[in-house]
Amino acid sequence: MGQKIQAVKGMNDLLPLEQKDFKLTSAFWQAFEDVVRKWTRRFGYSQIRTPILEQTGLFVRSIGEETDVVGKEMYTFSDSNDTLSLSLRPEGTASCLRAVVEHNLLYNSPQKLWYMGPMFRRERPQKGRYRQFHQVGVEALGFDGPDVDAEMIAMCADLWRELGISDFLTLEINNLGNKEERAAHRSALVAYLQQHEAILDEDSKRRLKTNPLRVLDSKNPDLQAVCNQAPRLLDYLGEESLAHYNGFKRLLDVLGIAYVENPRLVRGLDYYNLTVFEWTTDKLGAQATVCGGGRYNGLIGELGGKDAPAIGFAMGIERLLLLVHEYGRLKTDAAPDIYVMQQEEGLEAAINYASRLRAAGFNVLQHCGNQSLKNQMKKADASGARFALIVGEDEAENGTATVKDLQGQFGQQTIASAELTTLLTQWKNT
Ligand code: HAM
């Protein structure tokens, strides 16, 4: 026997069964995907699917060279001719914009887009943090808001409501202003942080040089006092940015959506300006952010398109579903309607009945292989099927079938094959 080969660290298999350290099943995930399709439709968003591999330059230019995501976490390699550097996408916004610019989608009208799929970041794996993880993302391109900013939040709130997790998520918002406002704040912040350089940790010292705003994001308890007293970006906002921010907050009030203003919320990707937000939970340990996003008005221009305002967000599916699994609701319907059992003599009739029932709209799981009817009944129960159909020797001979309601309501009945579909339809709908 050859040696077993294991999955890459931090990358999960999604199985029909719950695993010890990964509780999500493929049926649960699929039920979520169904919810997402209906939800995005409800808000008038269209799906975009882009490749998982892109040129590395796309992420360097959009997410920013100094970010952890680009600086240390990307899976990057040279294509075979060695001249082209490719990376597995660490997020979806950059790819989405690349495609929008490439296909000139904003030529005629703004776009409301969504996507879903795997993303890759070489982070230290732990519960809720993986190296291959999945996002649902939404991007609204060509709207300068703040109405669309509020729509982003309304969309999230609508999904949380449907999944039964509204009570476990907190909305944090902030406004990062425009480039000039950030530059003015940055000078003040750097001067302030330099005064406290002695107590900064290594990470913060590095960020002080590369992206001082991210120092405020530090989780180091020793730095909290310094960070709390630091100059606030909000105090550097000009009239327009403030009007945008206030308009956004007013619409959240109209929608009845509660929020917490967090002046230290900066996000981990460099492309943001004006509105930023995160939905956090205290139920998932250290991996508290389930969904995050914001405005990135300059990015389409930087990627070679005609400048247009834009905003979006993405949620981590694993984190979200771990929360839903434990605290929310999501109906899975993986169980078949009917489990078909047969004895050798009844095989042909059983196969026939199964395909007739499928054609009539039932989900039918056909038992394969020879086993005692007793064992087949155990399998039928374990499958979660509502009904069992038994085609033994007698039934095969008489052109009948025995139907059993596994939930007990209708008991068991042997009927002529011609009545099978009618009876089961009646039972199912009663
Ligand atoms: P992000 O904050 O980097 O934003 O990621 C969004 C969400 O993806 C996070 O809140 C988290 O739930 C999930 N996530 C990130 N990294 C991991 C990981 N290693 N394991 C599990 N889940 C993870 C973005 O990606 C932006 N593109 C969002 C956006 C869209 N902004 C504008 N439009």
Characterise this structure.
It is found in: Cytoplasm. L-histidine binds at residues 91-93, 121, 135, 139, 267, 271-272. Belongs to the class-II aminoacyl-tRNA synthetase family. It catalyses: tRNA(His) + L-histidine + ATP = L-histidyl-tRNA(His) + AMP + diphosphate + H(+). Residues 29-336 form the Aminoacyl-transfer RNA synthetases class-II family profile domain. The structure is a single chain. The chain is of the alpha+beta class and 430 residues long. It folds into two domains: 26-177 and 237-327, BirA Bifunctional Protein, domain 2; 338-429, Rossmann fold. 37% of the residues lie in helices and 20% in strands. The chain contains 15 helices and 16 strands. It has helices at residues 26-42, 56-63, 68-72, 93-102, 147-163, 179-195, 202-210, 224-229, 239-255, 299-302, 317-327, 347-359, 373-383, 393-398, 420-429; strands at 46-47, 53-55, 76-78, 85-88, 111-120, 132-141, 170-175, 260-261, 273-280, 289-295, 310-316, 338-342, 364-366, 387-391, 400-405, 412-416. The strands form three sheets. Strands 1-5-6-11-10-9-7-8 form an eight-stranded mixed beta sheet. Strands 13-12-14-15-16 form a five-stranded mixed beta sheet, with helices on both faces. Strands 2-4-3 form a three-stranded antiparallel beta sheet. A hairpin with a 6-residue loop joins β3 (76-78) and β4 (85-88). α1 (26-42) packs antiparallel against α5 and α5 (147-163) packs parallel to α9 (239-255). The chain starts with 25 loop residues before the first helix and ends with a helix. The model has no long low-confidence stretch (mean pLDDT 94).
